[in-house]
Amino acid sequence: MPKGQVQKAIHNFSQFQKSATQGDVYQNVVNHPWAQPLVKALNLPVPVKLRRQQQASEEFLRGKALFGAAPNGTKTESNVSNAILTVLSKSSAKLFFSKGNKQQQDLMSASKQFPLRVLSETTHKHSALVYDATNIETPEQLSSLYNFYHNAISRIAEHSRVIVVGLTPESCKSPAQASVMRSLEGFIRSCAKEIGGKAATANLLLLEPDAEALLEAPLRYLLSARGAFVTGQTLHITKVSPTKEAINWRQPLLDKTALITGASRGIGKAIAETLARDGAKVILLDIEPCKDDLESLARRLGGHAVIADVSDKKALNKLIKDVQKGSETIDILVNNAGITRDKTLARMDDKRWNSVIDINLAAIQRITEALVDNKVLNVGGRVVCISSINGIAGCFGQTNYSTSKAGVIGYVEAMDKPLARRRITINAIAPGFIETQMTQAIPFLSREIGRRISSLSQGGQPEDVAEAVAMFANPAASGLRANTLRVCGQNLVGA
Ligand code: NAD
């Protein structure tokens, strides 16, 4: 064989090898036109490529949105329905009312507040199906939820959104209503599994009474392409005073400063880019070996790079002094830095155990408390901690990692009240399988399983986690407290 051809073959093979270890090869191949006959012949599942946010200015919802509400038995309007419709009417989606909701429809059209159309045709595809279930009080009344979705679910478009709004079970008047509100979780989780093949998502928002003014940030997020990898999840909205700040929805983080740990690559890098896109000034922290990448990212985002190890207590003191010297404060803290040091428990050495617990858990506590105690984190600030679904479900060979990540969820729940005094919110995100350097290190077969066992049959991208961080960081998200949001495409085994 001539030398040129040999070199070309070696080059092609190394390209193939590279692509076989980077990114989702299966998804790319089965979506490729030349593979279609084979895909059809073998009846292979084809994960639909998720539609993610392309530009900051992109509309949060387009197409045709169908709204319904459980009858409220009174002749008065529902505040929750009004709050949902107010958000929907800010999108460019055309709003439709389901035929079955005669009473609500009359009330809504009487108020003339919303340009609602009654759904008469059955041919169009819905981009969103939103249901206000807050008035359901008994198991029998769940039939209204069934009727709404039963009639419409088969007409959802690819990438569409199913959203149910209910009440937190703890706030319900009767055990029957509390059980009904809890049952909504089962509904959306199963629904998410049924529609995942269309890259569509289903999620639940549970409100405390009179918290509807705090719906907007999570509702916009879940309806939009920003929440593409979040499905089968529930967010709780606590009743607090809503922010008095006018929200600029294009750049909600203008004038805010965010500190992101582990920011040189992977999820941390995407968080830095996303918060900067939303207007925040970013302070990026990472360890010495990542200096070049960190500094070039900081330059690109107009931010500031800090070389420090989160496990080094002296470095933390220096960081605080530096921030104070520059008479700066921080509005958003993202505890993202994390490591894995996998071994089964019997083979795990002290070093692996201690380093993972320290970096993934103890350092988060040290940093958060040092910033709060030194008043470096502003009143009304936001703390977002990155946990993992392995902290919920557990994972073979990861007792150290799962312990640390479950501890992060416990920390967020325990810190909610102490931080609420300064109107600081703290929430966790539990990513599932996200395409980063961390998951590239997983053996090929486990990696493939990690991708395919989600309802969306694929892994997430770092920006999926970053968009969830941006949602929690939004000044309008003050009702989101001590939540753990799984950004996992409903990938969870073993829990
Ligand atoms: P990654 O390994 O690509 O990035 C982690 C970053 O943290 C790196 O930049 C690293 O240098 C930094 N870091 C590590 N130790 C540090 C220390 N002592 N001090 C300062 N910085 C340090 O990982 P990733 O996939 O981007 O993960 C980011 C976070 O998300 C981690 O907390 C991880 O546990 C979590 N997570 C990731 C996945 C996933 O699928 N990738 C899933 C669940 C949770």
UniProtKB/TrEMBL annotation:
GO MF term set: 3-oxoacyl-[acyl-carrier-protein] reductase (NADPH) activity
Pfam families the record matches: adh_short
NCBIfam families, alphabetized: PRK08261.1 (NF006110)
Enzyme class (EC, first level): oxidoreductase
Residue span, Ketoreductase domain: 256-432
Keyword flag Oxidoreductase: yes
Residues forming coiled coils: none
Key words of the record: Oxidoreductase
Protein family per UniProt: Belongs to the short-chain dehydrogenases/reductases (SDR) family.
Name assigned to this protein: 3-oxoacyl-ACP reductase
Protein's UniProt keywords contain tRNA-binding: no
EC code(s) of this entry: 1.1.1.100
